[in-house]
Write a structure and sequence with these properties.
- The complex is a heterodimer of chains A (129) and B (628).
- Chain A has 129 residues and is of the alpha+beta class.
- Chain A folds into two domains: 69 residues, Winged helix-like DNA-binding domain superfamily/Winged helix DNA-binding domain (Arc Repressor Mutant, subunit A, Orthogonal Bundle), CATH 1.10.10.10; 42 residues, no CATH class.
- Chain A is 51% helix and 12% strand.
- Chain A has a three-stranded antiparallel beta sheet.
- The termini of chain A are far apart.
- Chain B has two domains: 296 residues, no CATH class; 262 residues, 6 Propeller (Neuraminidase), CATH 2.120.10.
- In chain B, the strands form six sheets. In chain B, strands 6-5-10-11-12-13 form a six-stranded antiparallel beta sheet, with no helix packed on it.
- In chain B, helix 2 packs parallel to helix 12, helix 5 runs antiparallel to helix 8 and helix 9 runs parallel beside helix 11.
- The chains are: A alpha+beta (129), B alpha+beta (628).
- Chains A and B meet through helix 1, helix 5, strand 4 and helix 6 of A and helix 5, strand 1, strand 2, strand 3 and helix 7 of B.
- Strand 4 of chain A pairs antiparallel with strand 3 of chain B.
- Chain B: This is Peptidase M56 domain-containing protein.
- Chain B: InterPro entries: Beta-lactam_resp_regulator, Peptidase_M56, WD40/YVTN_repeat-like_dom_sf.
- Chain B: It comes from Paenibacillus montaniterrae.
């Protein structure tokens, strides 16, 4: 792509996430199915979003018999890089941990910590014997 | 207003910090022997206490611990010299006030006059109070900044996470998911499960429509079940509110590192208690499985890059503590032997009660000069070093700290006339450095209207309010703290009869409400009035039918009145007795009784003493002030 990659609106990004994850050309009904837990779209709505994505150069549309199938024209990593980490994201960093219930604080653990915890569990294992 | 809240917050922050430190010291011991539940609840109580800056009344708490000298603290924050609450009862046998009849007391008049010109020279008080004001604003700004930061970061994160999210729908895993929900007794539809790579870890987000966010979908069966179970325990327990409360506490006490520490400890306890609940009644193998599952979850999916960052640290200590707690918990006591934690709970509650009493000190004021009116002349029942006088032009001047500060009140009288013709009443003054109140009849233009002038800053500024429908010339006023005050308006109603009406304020004197009066029970000229609280008040009447003292009192804010029975030693039987205005210092009360000898007149003052807000009184010879 020569031109700059545009930032996608939420709805279009959601469709792209499904396509990227599938890793192979997918049909509209497959996408609809995958989105079911989050959005209840009519097929026509999805078709509008899909054609917009094709226009923007995010999707390739391939005719397969009676159905169209879609595959990504832009790689997930490529898009992610273009959207980048906003300054806000950097600014807020770790502070959301004060507002949500986390299983653990993923941002406050590094590889060495993991090794330490592993050692702790192994220690218990050994004490057991 | 803001400064008062700020002072309250400082006091709470300080006193509660002591409790937090005590808790931190006790924590390792508690952790070793008792379940996390106790610490969870204790932190919760402490957090609630930190959030309630306002006056909770624990007056009658069983245990009351005085942590610190309140008046000293007050003085530090208010920038005024510490006023020790010593009760130096100075009772003047003669009308002390220069007001009663200017012509008779020229020397005291002139003594006060020169000082009357320079009004307010107390520069140090001024500087400190403006410093306090700026600090209060800085504090408020800090609170808003912290809140704004947290809220906007939350909203931003939520938006980002949802934008990058996809529904979690792997068929076989959905079965497991539904199984956990069912086991926990939660409807599957009440929590949405989404996968979003913007989530750094599995988390439960949102208060009203909670969403369980997973960073990816490659969890194995065991991991998924443990993760969902853990988050659903939080959900069931409404821990998100606990967390929000901690955030709010942090915002309000942003200047106090001990509170930040407490907030961190409490969030950790939240997790430990959650783990504890999850593995309760399970064997060590299960517990190990749970730890392994968390550890695996932290490692991230094998197919993907490690999503861990090194921006923040400190997470590992929490995790180590949690693992140890999960694996060793079965040795801890949970149910029956709760003595130590229960004791801790009681201590925290009572310390909090004591703290509350200190908070009350925020409303407490320096003692005020109190007047009585035994025979159309005023007597200073309690001299707080403040007094009033009238200058040549008829302005009423208020003098504070034995004349150190002199301020002009808005009340003006005709200096040629006696007080009672002038619309003022010798007992219609209450003069404390924190609250000056004058009740008076207005000028000739608007006769028969009772006004109250109030100043909270030693006469610098005054507010004035009119008491609709009240009229009378026998006036008494007083305050029990900065907010609560009372006054009586009385008028002669024939021979040996006077009707008295009672008003109270709870906003420092801006508005007044009439409460019940004793007129149906007893109606005579008042010589002294005093309240120890909003409910309990005493009316002292001029002796008449018997030799007195005639005291009526209410303990239900004026709904009912009854005579206070006083037993005095026989030696005082021959005197006539006029009750003067009682004074109160918290629970302690002092009730002066004027003795009048049928032959020589004034014979001295004796005192009744109370230590229960005046519910019971006893004569104490130690305070006798008898004319020899």
């Amino acid at each position: 792509m020569e031109n700059e990659i545009k930032r996608l609106p939420d709805a279009e990004l959601e469709v792209m996430l499904v396509v990227w994850q599938a890793d192979q050309p997918v049909s509209a009904s497959y996408i609809l199915e995958q989105l079911r837990g989050k959005r209840k779209w009519a097929l026509a709505t999805l078709m509008t979003v899909l054609s917009r994505l094709v226009d923007k150069g995010f999707l390739h549309c391939v005719k397969q018999g009676r159905c169209n199938s879609y595959h990504a024209a832009i790689a997930e990593e490529e898009y992610k890089e273009s959207e980048g980490k906003s300054t806000l994201e950097k600014l807020f960093g770790n502070s959301i941990q004060d507002m949500v219930m986390s299983l653990y604080n993923g941002k406050a653990i590094n590889k060495r910590d993991l090794a330490d915890l592993r050692a702790l569990l192994d220690q218990v294992e050994r004490d057991e014997r | 207003m803001l400064e008062e809240i700020f002072i309250d917050i400082l006091l709470i922050s300080f006193t509660t910090s002591l409790l937090i430190i005590a808790m931190a010291i006790a924590s390792p011991k508690l952790r070793k022997h008792y379940s996390a539940k106790w610490r969870y609840w204790i932190w919760l109580i402490i957090a609630i206490r930190l959030l309630l800056p306002f006056n909770l009344s624990f007056d009658d708490s069983i245990i009351s611990i005085d942590i610190t000298d309140r008046s000293a603290l007050q003085a530090i924050f208010q920038g005024a010299p510490s006023s020790t609450m010593q009760f130096e009862m100075s009772v003047a046998p003669q009308p002390v006030s220069a007001v009663s009849d200017p012509a008779l007391q020229p020397e005291s008049q002139s003594a006060l006059q020169p000082a009357a010109q320079p009004i307010h020279t107390d520069a140090s008080t001024f500087n400190l109070s403006s410093l306090l004001q700026s600090l209060a604003w800085i504090w408020l700004l800090g609170v808003l900044v912290v809140l704004l930061y947290h809220i906007s970061s939350y909203l931003f994160f939520r938006k980002q996470a949802l934008r990058w999210s996809k529904p979690f729908i792997a068929q076989e895993q959905e079965m497991d998911l539904a199984g956990v929900f069912k086991e926990m007794g939660i409807k599957r539809a009440s929590v949405t499960v989404l996968v979003s790579e913007k989530a750094p870890n599995p988390m439960l987000v949102g208060i009203f429509k909670p969403v369980l966010l997973l960073p990816h979908q490659y969890y194995d069966r065991n991991q998924l079940i443990f993760i969902v179970k853990h988050e659903l325990i939080h959900y069931k327990r409404h821990d998100i509110f606990y967390k929000l409360m901690l955030m709010l506490v942090q915002a309000i006490h942003w200047f106090n590192p001990i509170v930040w520490f407490m907030s961190r400890e409490a969030s950790r306890e939240l997790e430990i208690y959650c783990d504890e609940t999850l593995v309760a009644a399970h064997d060590l193998a299960y517990r190990k499985q749970y730890c392994e599952a968390i550890l695996d979850a932290m490692q991230g999916p094998k197919s993907r890059k490690l999503a861990l960052s090194t921006n923040f640290t400190g997470g590992v200590q929490t995790m180590q503590q949690r693992f140890i707690s999960i694996l060793t918990m079965n040795k801890k006591r949970n149910g029956l032997s709760v003595f130590v934690p229960a004791l801790f709970l009681i201590i925290s509650v009572s310390v909090l009660a004591a703290c509350t009493n200190i908070v009350k000190a925020g409303e407490e004021m320096k003692p005020g000069t109190i007047y009585s009116s035994p025979a159309y002349a005023s007597i200073v029942t309690f001299d707080a070093g403040n007094s009033y006088s009238i200058d040549e032009e008829g302005n009423i001047l208020i003098s504070y700290r034995d004349g150190e500060v002199i301020a002009k009140s808005p009340v003006k009288v005709d200096p040629a006339k006696a007080a009672w013709e002038n619309g003022i009443s010798e007992s219609g003054f209450f003069i404390s450095e924190d609250k000056t109140a004058i009740v008076y009849n207005a000028s000739e233009n608007e006769p028969l209207q009772i006004h109250v002038a109030i100043s909270d800053d030693m006469g610098k500024t005054w507010s004035n309010s009119i008491i609709e429908g009240a009229s009378g010339s026998e006036l008494f006023i007083g305050f029990t703290n900065k907010k609560d005050g009372w006054m009586t308006v009385g008028n002669s109603a024939g021979v040996a009869r006077a009707l008295n009406f009672v008003y109270q304020t709870s906003d420092g004197g801006k508005t007044w409400q009439e409460i019940g009066n004793p007129n149906e029970v007893y109606a005579e000229h008042l010589t002294g009035v005093g309240f120890s609280s909003k409910e309990i008040g005493f009316f002292g009447y001029r002796y008449f039918a018997d030799y007195g003292p005639v005291i009526y009192w209410t303990q239900d804010q004026g709904l009912s009145w009854e005579r206070l029975m006083v037993s005095l030693p026989d030696e005082f039987e021959r005197y006539r007795k006029n009750p003067l205005s009682p004074t109160f210092n918290g629970k302690e009360g002092y009730f002066p009784i004027e003795l009048i000898d049928p032959d020589i007149g004034f014979a001295g003052v004796i005192y009744l003493v109370s230590d229960d807000y005046g519910r019971s009184w006893e004569y104490d010879a130690a305070y006798d002030q008898l004319k020899k």
